[in-house]
Model the fold of this input.
Amino acid sequence: MGDDYVKVRVQLEQMRSFGEDEGADAEEQQQLPGSSPPHAPVSPDPSSVTIAGSDASSTSVTCKQRGKSRSRPGRDDKNSCGKHLQDLSLHGSAAHAGKNLNRLGHERTLHIRGTGKILQGKSETNGNYVSIHPSKNIPEVKLANKRRPVTVDTAKAKTSLEALKISIKQLKWKEFPLGRRAACDIYWHGVSFHDNENIVSGQVNKFPGMIEMLRKINMSRAVRTMQELFPEEYDFYPRSWILPEEYQQFSTQIRMVKENDATVNPTFIVKPDGGSQGDGIYLIRDPSDLKLMAGSQAKQGVVQEYIHKPLLIDKLKFDIRLYVLIKSLEPLEIYIAKEGLTRFCTEPYQEPSQKNLSHVFMHLTNYSLNVHSGNFVHSDSQNTGSKRTLSSVLYRLAAKGVDIKKVWSDIIALVIKTVIAVVPELKVYYQAEIPPGKPGPTCFQILGFDILLMKNLKPVLLEVNSNPSMRIEHEQEVAPGVYEYVPSPVDKEVKVGVIRDTLRLMDPAHRKPSVSPDEAALPSLCLKQVYPKYTKQFNYLRLVERIASLFIRFLGVKGNMRLGPTAFRTFIRTCKLSNSNFTMASVDILYIDITRRWSGSTPDSREAGMGLQAFVEAFFHLAARRFKSLPMREQVASLLDLCEAQLEPQSGAEDRRSVSCSRALPRANKTQSLGLTNPQLNSPTPLRRAASQDYRLHQRLKPRSLRANVEN
Ligand code: ADP
Done:
């Protein structure tokens, strides 16, 4: 056995033991549109990295990746090879440190330059390297370039199928249209996380709980919580009241506004919870016009301030559909598609009056409604017709002197803030569905943001769709009474780009999109990273996420989404929040008070215990008691600091890496990770005890029957 072989063996051992650390983010640095392009660091193809160390003349190491990368949080999933490569690169002249190189189950091929020796081995899913054997005279290039294509299960893709097929073809990946007995790398679901049950590995394009989270009531609540803490930052969401519970509040407030100023006559838009495509939506000018009941049942929904001065183009109201990818929850990674769609009304806009309130083609921009108007224009051109690309609209505005850079950066801020508002509860869903330690897939999701530009160019969030339509054809009447699906070039242009580039970003081998050989023919990514890129500007908003981390920690039991009274007491005790002024009896009263108020107000109120939103309310209450003299935001931040400080000594370093909401977590970004903890495994004994006592109160939250198989 030659010296080189021994050297490489040693290096392999080092790779394994260095598995703690890894290179920085492999994705390209992104810029806002209009700003100067970043100086993109030249990165190697991570699937084949050659290192020239101090003895570069004789030895090179090729890390070849293969197979699905289902990494787990913690030590085993880290990039041992990457770390080693970095170490080597310190000494060598031509070394490129690949990022996200070392995934589990990857083959490694070691080339010993000059000797013709090739060592091959494979790392097991637990990160161990099982075999390594020298073989002679195998052509280096052939081995280094060979990799199996990424596999995609498209059996449940539904209406995304067309665009997905085109994307897979462009990437030269392998589609399984009927599913596959063996595991696939990626599962593409048309509706929800649960479209395929029992997926234990790979990646799914839906997060558990996203549909529930983005229903109109839940979404309004999540944004409202943020509005309480950060009123100025969250002024992009119209004032909303939840029905039926806030009907009295709504009518009192409107009456007072009108009494104060008789010339004011605001309009409101009423939206059913879980509705889509404009279904059940209507405008009102007086609270008494609300239709509160459906038969004997109170209608759940929201009533919202109507934005009566939208920006018009060609005298028509329009809204923007923007595609946003949540690539990972922990660490939080958000991408925005540079291209989107704009959907136009088909009747010239007039400010609302009693006469025109029911004119849906004037007030509602939904494609599904306007397509039935005789004025709807199907156009192959991207800048005419009733559906246009976002860029064509922005160019048009720019030509009129609008500062579209400002508009775009306001839109990005709106998107990041909205995601920050919904992430806390998503994390609760995630840990309930895939508790740490349970095998499961990692998740990503494309969301559809509906945004209205006001006349003064301020973007307003209308809603976020968990299941945005990815259809690239539309129904058309080709002869009287005869309808056919015909291709829609505008949809195709935008949606295929979004799906294809989402896949490129989710490539389990983590080849850098811009350097993968198969990608030479592909256009540059249409998805731009905005988070963590803009972490500095927005991280301070993530207070509720820290509250959610506490909540999850004290949930204790796998699959749980609600805190029982014992666990709530344990939280108070562990964080030392009770004293002679706030006895444990008061704690119990607070618990009962808040949970009672919330029961009946949430869609899943059949469940006993305290959900996250109720816990947040309790937390705000505790913060106000404890830090009376401070402004609200500081009260909450101070209480969080206090609780976290109390928990710090108990949790130790282990807590830090216990829960990952994106299990494919090769790079722990400490600056933005909020340190979610594994409630089951790492909780101190009292927590576990409390959790098991409360467990009797709970049933695992099952996904609700999904009305949301409607895409919008
Ligand atoms: P749906 O999920 O049913 O499409 P949306 O919340 O998207 O419900 O509302 C449907 C349409 O109504 C939007 O596309 C937009 O044109 C209009 N709309 C919704 N909310 C407002 C609002 N607050 N102000 C003005 N127009 C609105």
About this structure: Residues 541-601+609-643 form a domain with the Recoverin; domain 1 fold (CATH 1.10.238).
